[in-house]
């Protein structure tokens, strides 16, 4: 998911370094959780094509950038762990471009916070300031590196103050390419005996198009190469820019999702085109009907599903779930995280910025709205909360 998420830069110290569930082998059994990675049938038959969106379990647990609550995000370590923990879908790939036109998986084109690039004196001169969707941003950018150069870098934890345990794995993995992810998907499907789904996001497509590095055509070419450009392919493509999804709709038949940030924000492609509409316009019944003409779903920030008050606490659910379902759209909101700074105040426990709060209670609130799935940095926690919800069990804490 993108930079639009609230509290992305929250910092803190001193956390309980515990996994929410024990991993029992590559098959993904989690604390005996029935159906966690269980049913070999979900996601369709192994071999590159899934059974379509309707084959996914509801609510779907999507591993946000892998299992990014426990490993540096967008690494094969994070992706593998998400599958081990039982995630139904892995958000394998925030796609950005290299200078020589390869798609790689990074949270943003600026990689100073997610790699060890600052430790490479040979790249010191590449540090610069650019306008990224209207925001002055200083650091190192993927479009200033060839793929061979990026392969010399190693991934690091993006928010170490919230996740000091993850820094243990700094430097262990490199930067995946999208093509490597597609190969990994097929390998994991064979290895695990069930179809592995991925949920890549095209990051800042207008920005890259203006650089002559259009993301949509590159992604579509790779999907066609690997036979994953079809309606029932086990891939969901997403973007915060509606026109990017419209472009993809003409290139592939793969399921498509429009990401939606805060109600008062404007997608950057709208800003560039002089389109005055905001996200609030897109989530009206008229706006949702338009999205349904070229996409299969929406990925709203959780605040569009249940708005927050001035204190940051949950209020009453909006009509978004009902309205989206009425026009045939699925909803996969983002993002639930375990740590205090990412939770509404009433769900926090203590004051430590790296301590876990009552995230199970928060999951229940979102599941109760009727959403079709949710992104989480902690797939094991999400799966346990899902099991509580489906069984009608509410764990008191």
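^ structure tokens above, recovered residues below v
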């Amino acid at each position: 998911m993108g930079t639009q998420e609230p509290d992305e830069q929250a910092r803190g110290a001193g956390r309980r370094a515990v996994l929410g569930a024990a991993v029992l082998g590559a098959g993904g059994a989690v604390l005996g959780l029935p159906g966690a990675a269980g049913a070999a049938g979900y996601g369709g038959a192994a071999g590159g094509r899934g059974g379509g969106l309707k084959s996914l379990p509801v609510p779907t647990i999507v591993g946000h950038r892998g299992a990014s609550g426990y490993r540096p995000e967008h690494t094969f370590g994070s992706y593998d762990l998400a599958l081990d923990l039982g995630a139904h879908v892995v958000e394998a790939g925030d796609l950005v471009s290299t200078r020589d036109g390869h798609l790689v998986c990074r949270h943003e084109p600026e990689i100073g916070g997610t790699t060890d690039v600052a430790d490479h004196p040979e790249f010191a001169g590449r540090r610069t300031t650019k306008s990224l969707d209207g925001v002055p941003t200083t650091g190192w950018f993927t479009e200033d590196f060839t793929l061979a150069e990026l392969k010399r870098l190693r991934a690091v934890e993006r928010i170490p103050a919230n996740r000091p345990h993850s820094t243990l794995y700094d430097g262990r993995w490199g930067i995946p390419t999208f093509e490597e992810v597609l190969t990994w998907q097929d390998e994991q499907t064979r290895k695990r005996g069930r179809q592995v789904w991925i949920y890549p996001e095209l990051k800042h497509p207008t920005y890259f198009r203006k650089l002559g590095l259009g993301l949509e055509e590159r992604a579509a070419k790779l999907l066609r190469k690997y036979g994953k450009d079809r309606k029932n392919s086990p891939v969901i493509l997403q973007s915060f820019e509606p026109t990017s999804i419209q472009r993809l709709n003409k290139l592939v038949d793969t399921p498509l999702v429009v990401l939606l940030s805060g109600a008062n924000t404007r997608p950057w492609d709208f800003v560039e085109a002089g389109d005055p509409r905001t996200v609030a316009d897109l989530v009206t019944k008229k706006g949702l009907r338009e999205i349904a003409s070229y996409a299969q779903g929406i990925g709203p920030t959780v605040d569009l599903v249940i708005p927050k008050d001035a204190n940051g606490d949950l209020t009453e659910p909006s009509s978004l779930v009902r309205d989206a379902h009425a026009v045939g759209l699925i909803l996969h909101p983002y993002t639930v995280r375990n740590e205090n700074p990412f939770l509404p105040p009433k769900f926090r426990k203590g004051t430590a910025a790296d301590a876990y709060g009552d995230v199970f209670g928060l999951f229940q609130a979102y599941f109760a709205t009727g959403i079709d799935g949710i992104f989480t940095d902690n797939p094991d926690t999400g799966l346990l909360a899902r099991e509580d919800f489906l069984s009608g069990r509410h764990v008191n804490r």
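The chain has 13 helices and 15 strands.
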